[in-house]
C-alpha cells in the first residue's frame, strides 16, 4: 500500500503543500534549510501517528489550525487530521468511502512499528541498533527476561565456583588425614586399677598374715625346743603346743594357696601397665581427638565441595540450555535481510559486527529493517540524506525497487533531477529557474 496524494497546510514551516507522488522507487525532496523540508517529513509522520509523534508547536506561526490529508491506494483509505490553536485535535479515517471507528488504532495497525529512519539507525550505537532490531524481529523468547535470568544463573555459578575453589583448597591443603587412633577408655582403666590395687592390698594383707604365721611357727619351734628341754616338766604342755603348731601350719598352707591364687607378680605387672597407660592416655587421647576432628573437617570440606560442584554443574547445564534456547529462537527468527543476526550487545551482518560492514552493507541493512517495520505502508522516508553520494542513491533506488517499496529522501539543495523542491513552506514551480542561494554550512554528519 502506497501514498497516492498528500495535502499538508500550516504545519511547522509548511504553508501549503499538495502533491501526487510518482510510482518510482526513490523520491527526492530537496530545498534549502528552513524552507520546510524537515517539516514536510515530520508532517507525514504526524499525519499517521498523531499525538505520539506531534511536535510541541505543530501549527505554523500566525495560523489558527493545521490540516493533514493523506490518500492511500487511490482513495482506498483517506486520512484527515486537524489541529487547532485552541488545542482541539480531530481525526477521520475512511476506508472505501466509509468512516472507520477507532481510526488511530486502524492507522497503527497499517503502519506497524514505524517510524525508523534508516540513516538514523545506521548512525546509532551498536547497542541502540540491537534494541531497534529486537523491536523488528519476532522471537519466541523474551530476550530481556532471558538476559536477566541468564545473568542470575551466571552470577550464582560464579559465586558457587568461588565456594568450590575455597572448599577444595581447604581439604586438598590438609592432605589425606591419618587414621584415627584408638581412644583409650581411661575410666575403664581407672576402674581396673582400683580393682587391682584392692587385690594388691588384699594380697599384701595375706602376705603379712603369712609372715606372721611363719614368725609364729619359728617362735613356737624355739619354744618347743625349750619345752623339750623342759620335757620333764610337762609333756602335756608340749602336746598342746604341737597341736597348735600343726593348726598354724595348716592355716599357713591355706594362706599360701590364697596368696598364690592372687598372682601377685601378674597383678604387680598389670598395675604398672595400667599406670603407664593412664599416664600416656592423655596425650594419646588428645592426638586421637585431633585426628578425629581433622577427619571431620576434611569430610565436611569435601562434602561442601562436592555439593558446590553439583550445583555448579547444574547451573552450567542450565546456562547451556538457556544458550540453546536463545540460539534456537534466533535461528527460527525471520530477519529483515539475509545474513543478519543478533549478538550479545550488537547487530551482526554476515558473521561480523554491523559497524564493521561496508557503508553499502550498512545502508542495505538499515533500509531492510525500516521496511520490515512497515509491512503494509510501502513508503519509507529518510531524513538528512544530503551526504549520500550517487552510488548510495542508486543503491537505495535499486534496493527499494527490489523490495517493492518507495523511499522518500530529504536532500539539501535543488539540483537533484526530478526532485520535489520545497521553498518557503510550499512547492516550487518546476518551470521556475533554479536560483543560487547562499552557501550552506558543511553538515557534521559522516558520509557512508
Runs with pLDDT <50, length 5+?
A: 443-448
What's the helix count? 10
Provide the helix percentage: 40-55%
Strand content range: 5-15%
Over the alpha carbons, how many angstroms does the gyration radius reach? Answer: 55 Å
The secondary structure category is alpha+beta
Characterize the largest beta sheet: strand count, sense, and whether it forms a barrel: 6 strands, antiparallel
Strands side by side in the biggest sheet: 2-1-4-5-6-7
Number of separate strands = 14
Question: Would you give an account of this structure?
Answer:
- This protein has a domain at 141-332.
- The protein contains ten helices and 14 strands.
- It has helices at 37-49, 103-111, 118-122, 126-136, 143-174, 186-229, 235-261, 264-332, 359-372, 390-403; strands at 3-9, 16-19, 26-30, 65-72, 77-84, 89-95, 98-99, 340-342, 347-349, 352-353, 379-382, 406-410, 420-423, 426-427.
- Helix 9 runs parallel beside helix 10 (390-403).
- The longest helix is centred in the middle third of the chain and has 69 residues, at 264-332.
- The chain starts with a strand and ends in a 21-residue tail after the last strand.
Amino acid at each position: 500500500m502506497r501514498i497516492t496524494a498528500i495535502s499538508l497546510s500550516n504545519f511547522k514551516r509548511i504553508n501549503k503543500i499538495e502533491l501526487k507522488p510518482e510510482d518510482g522507487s526513490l523520491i527526492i525532496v530537496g530545498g534549502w534549510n528552513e524552507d520546510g523540508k524537515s517539516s514536510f517529513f515530520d508532517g507525514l509522520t504526524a499525519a499517521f501517528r498523531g499525538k505520539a509523534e506531534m511536535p510541541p508547536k505543530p501549527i505554523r506561526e500566525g495560523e489558527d489550525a493545521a490540516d493533514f490529508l493523506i490518500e492511500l491506494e487511490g482513495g482506498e483509505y483517506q486520512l484527515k487530521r486537524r489541529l487547532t490553536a485552541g488545542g482541539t485535535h480531530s481525526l477521520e479515517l475512511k476506508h472505501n468511502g466509509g468512516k472507520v471507528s477507532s481510526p488511530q488504532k486502524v492507522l497503527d495497525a497499517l503502519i506497524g512499528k514505524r517510524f525508523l529512519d534508516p540513516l538514523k539507525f545506521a548512525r546509532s550505537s551498536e547497542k541502540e541498533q540491537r534494541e531497534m532490531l529486537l523491536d523488528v524481529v519476532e522471537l519466541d523468547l523474551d530476550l530481556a527476561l532471558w538476559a536477566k535470568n541468564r545473568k542470575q544463573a551466571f552470577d550464582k555459578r560464579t559465586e558457587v565456583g568461588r565456594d568450590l575453589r575455597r572448599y577444595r583448597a581447604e581439604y586438598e591443603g590438609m592432605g589425606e588425614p591419618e587414621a584415627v587412633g584408638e581412644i583409650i577408655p581411661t575410666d575403664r582403666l581407672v576402674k581396673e586399677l582400683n580393682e587391682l590395687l584392692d587385690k594388691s592390698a588384699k594380697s599384701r594383707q595375706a602376705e603379712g598374715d603369712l609372715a606372721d604365721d611363719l614368725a609364729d611357727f619359728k617362735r613356737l619351734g624355739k619354744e618347743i625346743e625349750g619345752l623339750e628341754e623342759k620335757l620333764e616338766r610337762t609333756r602335756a604342755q608340749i602336746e598342746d603346743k604341737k597341736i597348735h603348731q600343726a593348726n598354724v601350719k595348716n592355716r599357713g598352707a591355706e594362706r599360701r594357696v590364697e596368696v598364690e591364687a592372687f598372682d601377685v607378680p601378674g597383678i604387680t605387672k598389670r598395675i604398672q601397665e595400667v599406670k603407664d597407660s593412664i599416664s600416656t592416655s592423655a596425650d594419646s587421647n588428645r592426638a586421637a581427638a585431633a585426628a578425629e576432628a581433622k577427619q571431620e573437617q576434611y569430610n565436611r570440606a569435601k562434602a561442601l565441595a562436592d555439593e558446590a560442584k553439583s550445583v555448579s554443574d547444574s547451573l552450567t547445564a542450565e546456562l547451556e540450555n538457556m544458550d540453546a534456547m536463545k540460539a534456537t529462537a534466533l535461528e527460527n527468527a525471520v530477519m529483515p535481510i539475509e545474513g543478519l543476526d543478533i549478538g550479545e550487545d550488537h547487530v551482526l551482518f554476515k558473521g561480523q559486527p554491523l559497524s564493521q560492514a561496508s557503508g553499502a552493507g550498512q545502508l542495505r541493512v538499515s533500509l531492510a529493517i525500516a521496511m520490515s517495520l512497515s509491512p503494509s505502508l510501502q513508503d519509507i522516508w529518510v531524513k538528512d540524506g544530503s551526504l549520500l553520494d550517487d552510488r548510495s542513491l542508486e543503491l537505495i533506488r535499486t534496493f527499494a525497487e527490489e523490495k517493492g517499496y518507495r523511499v522518500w529522501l530529504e536532500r539539501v539543495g535543488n539540483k537533484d533531477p526530478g526532485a520535489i523542491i520545497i521553498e518557503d513552506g510550499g512547492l516550487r514551480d518546476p518551470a521556475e529557474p533554479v536560483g543560487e542561494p547562499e552557501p550552506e554550512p558543511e553538515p557534521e554528519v559522516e558520509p557512508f
